[in-house]
Amino acid sequence: MFYVAKILQALGLADVGYALLTGIMKNSSMAEEIVLALIGLGVFSLGRALERKVA
Description:
Blueprint: H1 2-25, H2 30-54
Helix pairs in contact: 1-2
């Protein structure tokens, strides 16, 4: 379960990075970037909570 939490944290960080690249490279609205960043934050937080529960 520890490794699942770490994978979720890595996916969350990758999604936030993708949100950053989307904001820089694509000429899209800021709302799309914010939604992607919030999804990444949620996934990372889920992994963090799961890690605390296991440890």
